[in-house]
Amino acid sequence: MTDATLDAAPAAPASARTGAPAAGAPRPVPFRGGGFQPSGRAWAGPLLFVLLIGIWEWGSASGWITPLTLPRPSAVAAVFGELWASGRLWEHLGPSLGRLAVGSALGLAAGIGVGLMIGLFSLARAGLAPLVAALFPVPKIALLPLFVIWFGIDEASKYALIAFGVFTPTVVATYGGVDNVDRSLIRMGQSFGLSWRSIVLKIVLPGAAPAILSGMRVSLAIAIILLVAAEMLGAEHGVGAFVLTAGSLYDLESLFCGVAILSALGLAVSFLIGRLERRLLDWRG
Amino acid sequence: MDLRLDAVSHAYGGVEVLRDVTLEAPAGRITCLVGPSGCGKSTLLRLLGGLERPDAGRALMLGDPPAGSLNPLTYVFQHFALLPWRTVAGNIRLVLEDHPLSRAERDEIVADVLARTRLTDFAKAWPRQLSGGMRQRVAIARALAARPAVMLMDEPLSALDAQTRELLMDDLVALWGRERFTAVYVTHNLAEAVRLGHRIAVLSRRPGQVREIAEIDTPLEDRRPDDPALVAVQADLWRLLREEAADADRELTGA
Ligand SMILES: Nc1ncnc2c1ncn2[C@@H]1O[C@H](COP(=O)(O)OP(=O)(O)O)[C@@H](O)[C@H]1O
Ligand SMILES: [Mg+2]
């Protein structure tokens, strides 16, 4: 459409000409392309966090929130300081971290292995994929008594529970990732006579790595939940046991302190995965 | 080493793709393969390189590959097939890693093919940082690193814009002038075939059969776009191809 046809249009309503700039006058093209690109803005998370704590502290100090409903943040911090000073923090955090590390490592290794098999071999896919789909929705916590019978009341049953919880989402993420590896790259590897091992290690695994890493975000969060559950059901030390004791005494300050430690643990795990992603996936730019 | 297809037929799930194709790719020359899209050119190339087994007939290697050839039948793909998680040098090294070569030998081969394709300055770049033309140059460098007896090129320039295609064609002509490599070069672009091909085989629409084989004697480095002899060949081939392409275009795609 040209200016000439616009001006010549007899039907152009007079009102459109009076309020707005004269018809045909240059005006900027309206911008419509924003959004749908989450990025940056790293300050927003901490800011919201500080803001919430600030409101909460202010509410407690002014008596608007009673200590019986919610403990005061500064009181929770004081409990934490005490734990830190007395060394009891590590008494609880140490065993928890150990269980998390061992259980997750076992679950990740087994999950990536089985996921690769399902992704690569038709027989494994036909046999194992339905099995994993059947195991996925089972609440793993419900199996803790079973694991206690199999592996004893000690550490082994906790490792097994965490490993099992990490295992199923890792399998699903891994074989989904393998399925999405560009087949033309595998063809390329075959056409250059690469060995099967090379194709798996240098083409399939790196191609599936983004999916495996984003699966890890989910599975390690599950691992923390299971860690606490296992420690609540039978442990002397550990963050879960600490939270359980505090809860049964209605010691809300300690309870919140334990919960905050768990949140921090989640944040730390997420941060570490982010670092790992940046190291392993730097080729994505 | 020559490569030959001997009465090859092939079908995918009941759809006949190639019918009784006999074709020879003589050593030291570029054999171009043109045909309408979907006529089985890529399939034919996969059969030639052993990525697929023909239903009937045979793909044959005649003679021995040159000594030191790491991968006698080597592909150059339309969409480059570079690993995005490896640098330019890493992509080339990939095809050397499974061979018993010392580290120094590998580095030497990589440096050599990078120099031959004028990519030395880009050794450490990631594929995503390169233009399409540069990526295809990397893929060609990678193919050269395997010291092929025959290069199997599947529409190597089709994903590139017209100007880049011209530049890369010049590069290929210069490369052939130096190395006299053997190639089977698939394209749907007649201008490319007439510029690069010593022999040009025209395939019919699906099921692909060889309609005609044209030989062009003008040396590659002397071919000008306005050379009347070449223009005549191209017009001839276009007449053949045109009917096939028109018919192929009206067909429903099987799958
Ligand atoms: N792996 C495959 N499975 C089933 N059909 C295929 C496969 N590869 C190609 N085809 C079919 O075979 C025909 C020829 O394909 P192709 O060789 O890619 O043609 P061209 O490269 O000449 O365009 C097409 O109809 C295509 O759909
Ligand atoms: Mg093709």
Verbal overview:
The complex is a heterodimer of chains A (285) and B (255). Chain A is mostly helical. Chain A has 12 helices and no strands. Chain A has a domain at 107-284: MetI-like fold. Chain A is flat. Chain B has 255 residues and is of the alpha/beta class. Chain B has one domain (2-254): P-loop containing nucleotide triphosphate hydrolases (Rossmann fold), CATH 3.40.50.300. In chain B, the strands form 2 sheets. Chain B has a 6-stranded mixed β-sheet with strand order 5-6-7-3-8-9, with helices on both faces. Chain B has a 3-stranded antiparallel β-sheet with strand order 2-1-4. In chain B, a hairpin with a 6-residue loop joins strand 8 and strand 9 (210-215). The longest helix of chain B has 23 residues, at 228-250. The model of chain B has no long low-confidence stretch (mean pLDDT 92). Bound molecules: adenosine-5'-diphosphate (ADP) and magnesium ion (MG). Magnesium ion is lined by residues 41-42, 155 of chain B. Chain B: Pfam families: ABC_tran. Chain B: GO terms for molecular function: ATP binding; ATP hydrolysis activity.
TL;DR of this structure?
Chain A has 285 residues and is mostly helical. Chain A is built from twelve helices and no strands.
Please estimate the helix content of chain B.
Answer: 25-40%
Number of helices of chain B: 7
Largest β sheet strand count, sense and barrel closure of chain B? 6 strands, mixed
Classify the secondary structure makeup of chain B into a structural class. alpha/beta
Low-confidence stretches of chain A: 1-9
Strand content of chain B: 15-25%
| Arrangement of strands in the largest sheet of chain B | 5-6-7-3-8-9
How many extended strands of chain A?
0
As residue ranges, the low-confidence spans of chain B are none
Largest inter-chain contact set: A-B, 21 and 23 residues
Q: What is the helix tally of chain A? A: 12
**Shape designation of chain B:** globular
CATH-defined architecture of chain B: 3-Layer(aba) Sandwich
**What name does CATH use for the topology of chain B?**
Rossmann fold
Keywords (chain B): ATP-binding, Nucleotide-binding, Transport
Pfam families (chain B): ABC_tran
Family (chain B): Belongs to the ABC transporter superfamily.
Domain ABC transporter (chain B): 3-232
